[in-house]
Amino acid sequence: MTNYHIGVIGGDGIGPEVAREGLKVLSAVADIDGFTYDTVEYPYSGEYYLKTKELVPPHMLDEWRALDAVFLGAIGHPDVEVGLVEASVILGLRVGLDLYINLRPIKLYAEHLCPLKDKKPEDVDLTVVRENTEGIYSQVGGNFKKGSPDEIATVTGIWTRKGCERAIRYAFELARQRAAMRDAGRNPRVTLVDKANAIRPQELWTRTFAEVAKEYPEVETDHAYVDACCMWLIKNPEWFDVIVTTNLFGDIITDVGAMIQGGMGIAASANIHPGKNGMFEPIHGSAPKYTGQNVANPLGAIAAAGMMCDFLGQKQAAQRIENAIAMLLGSKRIPSVDARSGLSTTQIGDMVVKEIREQVSRDT
Ligand code: IPM
Ligand code: MG
After folding, report:
1. Does 255 participate in catalysis according to the annotation?
2. Which residue's alpha carbon is at the smallest distance from atom 10 of ligand 1?
3. C-alpha to C-alpha distance for 162 and 217, rounded to whole angstroms
4. Cβ contact 167:273 at 8 Å
5. Which residues contact 323 (CB under 8 A, 6 or more apart)?
6. How far is the CA of 251 from the centre of ligand 2 (A)?
7. What is the average pLDDT value for the chain, to the nearest integer?
């Protein structure tokens, strides 16, 4: 029987609560699909930092690299310097483990969840491939003459040929796979999103995209500047299949994406180095105002647990989780994906487990 080693970072605010439900669902599918895992919990968070002044120590990356996956709730505490713990834990993992792909599916499970007029589930089904280690997140820069009237703040946007090529290639492979999984009638398409008209060095992405595209003649190519992409995502989300983009733009457009799939409460992400390491997290933050109230919607974390199963090779388990979420939202048994669904965090976790078990007994 396959056994996986999974690191768990509950983090701040609602993070530990939603992560617990993700793990509850993981335990159910492991039981059904016949795999086992052990978990090691790590305390790193804003709250832990306030108590101990400790961030992630450098040797921790070696420990995390040896795991099969890391599962994360959320990081961010209102009393800690902005970005300090996020940089240490989230960006530390992404860069430290070279998790160069941030995969963010945007899928509408039920029409009533979509704030856009007349858009149906078949109109909102795309995946964003966000380059996850470079760009303006490089941290190369700083403040000079800090606090004086002459202060200068700089950060260098770094895009490498290697970095953009591996993200673009992943996007084309994904478009191919997605097309193979769905009914004919919709061609695979990859859209490059950049801002090369204003940020001229991003022309590296334009050129690399054109070169890689030649290897995938059956995949349609498209391009949008990031500002226009935000507009098209609202106006015509059905145009998109796979989007590939830089780190910051991927961050921004996937919040738009989360809203058109119903809200931040359902959006999940996989930070991966294919074939090596992965970190899985909901894309929402720590939502301090809902901490400890058992009201946060854990579907984002549960969907992230599904993406973790997929990465670990447990495809059937991943599919079960996705089907259960789709059924519960489609039937309105879970009526919304925000904190006002009328259902508690733990209740939603239990409902997903029950739905998975019922699907198994229906199928057998
Ligand atoms: C995300 C988040 C992070 C990011 C923050 C918390 C550093 O917004 O994962 O989308 O900007 O990548
Ligand atoms: Mg974000």
Report:
1. yes
2. 251
3. 22
4. no
5. 359
6. 5
7. 97
Closest Cα to atom 11 of ligand 1: 251
Cα(77) to centroid(ligand 2), Å: 15
Q: Looking at residue 158, what DSSP letter applies?
A: B
Other C-beta atoms lying within 10 Å of the C-beta of residue 279: 28
Given the CA of residue 87, which atom of ligand 1 is nearest to it? 7
- Nearest-angstrom CA–CA distance, 134 and 138: 6
Given this model, what pLDDT does residue 364 score? 82
Q: Using CB atoms within 10 Å of the CB of residue 126, give its burial: 0 to 12 exposed, 13 to 18 middle, 19+ buried.
A: buried
Among protein residues, the one with the nearest Cα to ligand 1's atom 5 is: 86
Ligand nearest to the CA of residue 246, numbered in listed order: 1
| Phi, psi dihedrals of residue 152, rounded to the nearest 5° | -125, 135
**Which residue, judged by its Cα, is nearest atom 7 of ligand 1?**
86
pLDDT at residue 121 is higher than 90: yes
- HSE, CB side, 13 Å, CA atoms: give it for residue 18: 40
Strand-pair partners of 144: 152
Asked about 227 being catalytic, the answer comes back as yes
Active site residue 100: no
Cα(287) to ligand 1 centroid in Å equals 14
Cα of 257 vs centre of ligand 2, distance in Å, is 11
Closest atom of ligand 1 to 247 CA is 12
Please tell me whether residue 212 adopts helix, strand or coil conformation.
helix
Which pTM value belongs to this model? Answer: 0.97
Written as one string, the DSSP assignment of 217-284 is: TTSEEEEEEHHHHHHHHHH-GGG-SEEEE-HHHHHHHHHHHHHHTT-GGG-EEEEE-TTS-EEEEESS
Strand partners, 70: 7, 279
Q: Which amino acid is at 250?
A: G
Mean pLDDT across the stretch 129-137? Answer: 98
Could you report the per-residue pLDDT of 317-345, keeping only the tens digit for each?
A: 999 999 999 999 999 999 999 999 999 99
Which ligand sits nearest to residue 286's alpha carbon? 1
Q: pLDDT tens digits, residue range 55-100? A: 999 999 999 999 999 999 999 999 999 999 999 999 999 999 999 9
Q: Ligand 1: which atom is nearest the Cα of residue 255?
A: 10
Q: Are 336 and 113 in contact (CB under 8 A)?
A: yes
Any residues with Cβ below 6 Å from ligand 1, and which? Answer: 86, 90, 251, 283
Residues in the chain, total: 364
% of the chain with per-residue pLDDT over 70: 100
